[in-house]
Amino acid sequence: MARQQPDSDGKKFEWKNWSRVKRVGRYLRPYAWGYAVGILIISISSVLTLFVTRMWGQLGGVGVSGEAAAGPDMLGGLGIDMGDLQAIGWAILAILGVQAVLSFIRVYLFAHMTENMMLAMRRDAFQAVVSLPMSYYDTHSVGDLNSRISADVTAVQDVFTTTLAELLRQIIIVIGGIAALLYFSVHLTLLMLGTLPVMILAAIGFGRFIRKLSKRTQDQVATSNGVVQESLTGMVSVKSFANEALEILRYLASIREIRTLAMRGAIWRGAFASFIILFIFGAITLVIFRGADLMAQGGLASEHFFTFLLMTGLVAGSIGGLAAQFSALQRGLGAIDTLMDLLHEEREPVRTATELPATGSEPEHPSDLESAARDWLQPASLPKMKGEVVFDHVAFHYPNRSDVPVLRDLNLRIAAGEQVALVGPSGAGKSTIASLLLRFHEPTEGTISVDGKPLSEYPLTGYRLRIAYVPQEVILFGGDIRSNIAYGKPGATDAEIEAAAQQANAHDFILGFPEGYGTLVGDRGVQLSGGQRQRIAIARAILRDPDLLLLDEATSALDTASEKEVQIALERLMTGRSSLVIAHRLSTIRHADRIAVLSDGAVAEEGTHEELMAAGGLYRNLVENQELISSS
Ligand code: ADP
After folding, report:
1. Ligand 1 centroid from CA 138, angstroms
2. Which of 24-28, 323-327, 488-492, 526-530 has the lowest mean pLDDT?
């Protein structure tokens, strides 16, 4: 049964991955004692459940016959008068009291251990995700990673809070219950075991089959809705080709299929209802009938008969529950497997990937996060670089597209403090050059060096700390303007943030908002215009005070006023720093010390605007075909 396919989504666990699943032991180990106590409590509590059931039966039996006919059985050692209704009632209440206390302790204990485990697991999963190299994100969907941290961790949580506990409880009840049943009547027990569990398992399998059928019906409903959607959105084509009839027929075919599937489902649902009535209730009737018959012949005491019935119900319920717990366990193991797999993916050597303070040392207040991050990064920082960049015969293709060379033989030098504009047709590899400089990827051939040292010789985090990258699409994080600017330098003071905003020409528009630097941005706050967002990003970069600046200029046009503001901010940002600008605006390009024109994976032309215009090559073509944005 443990190998059944889980009903809901999620990865199926396979035994060959057991060694990977075992790694979860690292998270369990600190709570080994807690789990041992928890298991003990569940065991005691389950045995008590059996006792209570037995005593309920005793109540019924004594109530009917007015005396206790049978000798001592599992109640033997309790020292209670088993013929006295009141004594039994009080004893049951006492046991229930103990169980109530034990249950509370168990739930609390498991929650305490599991929530701490989840904290560590969520943290490690997120740490793994942010430490993955960019190339991982080229081949994996963000949604998938997201679900690992949310859905998978929750599935793991279910295993340790409820599934394992329930599994143990039900196993004890099934085994203990069957042993007790055998004690009361071997004959009746064999009859019951030969019928009920078989029927229950058949019913569970049947139920799954029916769910699958109804899923197919739902899928078909979705398909037919797709037909409607298509016809409606393409109404112009439908009408202009006079194809109404075709569309109606298409829809008809699809809804006929719904009817066929739904009717097939109905037949099986009907069969299921008949099955339950005839076989499950039939089996119950058979067992009760045999029991009553035995009792009438004096072969079974009345309290044993009552107990037998109640305990059969308990055992049957647990057998039914076991199946559900097994599939939950399987889902959980599958989730553990994917999570552990993620934790062992190769990471890039950023500082967080190698070490992080232990859980529990995180600051309690979100406002302390930034200074904590600053202190954490401090040891990683490198001495200032001059910022002389050399691309030496660099070739590159993306790992997932090895047949498409993006850069073939790129040679480019940016002198310390020089501003180089990179231009070229779309898809020429400009952004790729930026991502190589950011060390998102390694060149396939050749080397990139800064200040005469190959990039690979710099510690990754330290190197990136000396760079600022202003992307084309500026993404602001939820939170206020202040923290968005401070992203460039976690833990920066308010004075530093405002000075940066002033330089970036952002101070005035920020103060224009009633809440100034405390204004929330994004979904929950103001929506900033493209030009404003760019100036926030520039302020971020200024605050970082980088030795090397990478700028991917926005391709979308700004209005003239914004364009000027952004231009001035950019010029201030670039002054005195080595800058590589992926330029789309003539104003930016004219301001650069040098222009490199990229074509076919290599630098095709280099020079100033005037020189390149005079040369009449690719650059002049780009300008004349208006592929570069010229303002005013
Ligand atoms: P540009 O910035 O000049 O428009 P890019 O550097 O974005 O050009 O892209 C250069 C080439 O690399 C394009 O052919 C593009 O399809 C390809 N490319 C870009 N990013 C990836 C990626 N992550 N994986 C595979 N191919 C990519």
Report:
1. 11
2. 526-530
Q: Which residues line ligand 1 (CB under 6 A)?
A: 138, 398, 400-401, 406, 424, 426-432
19 beta partners? none
Residue 626, C-beta contacts closer than 8 angstroms, at least 6 positions apart: none
Atom of ligand 1 nearest to the CA of 434: 6
Query: How far, in Å, from the CA of 448 to the mean position of ligand 1?
Result: 19
Q: Are 22 and 343 in contact (CB under 8 A)?
A: no
> Tell me: the pLDDT tens digits for 350-372?
776 555 555 555 656 656 777 77
Identify which of 396, 397, 412, 431 to mutate to test ligand 1's pocket (most ligand atoms within 8 A of the CB): 431
Compute the distance from residue 427 Cα to the ligand 1 centre, in Å: 6
Residue range 426-459, pLDDT digits in tens = 888 999 999 999 999 999 999 999 999 999 999 8
| Residue closest to 422 by CA, chosen among 622, 549, 584 | 584
Cα of 406 vs centre of ligand 1, distance in Å, is 7
Model pTM?
A: 0.78
Q: How many angstroms separate the CA atoms of 632 and 628, rounded?
A: 13
Domains in the chain, start-ordered, CATH in brackets? Answer: 31-348 (1.20.1560.10), 389-624 (3.40.50.300)
Share above pLDDT 90 across residues of the chain, in percent, rounded to a whole number: 37
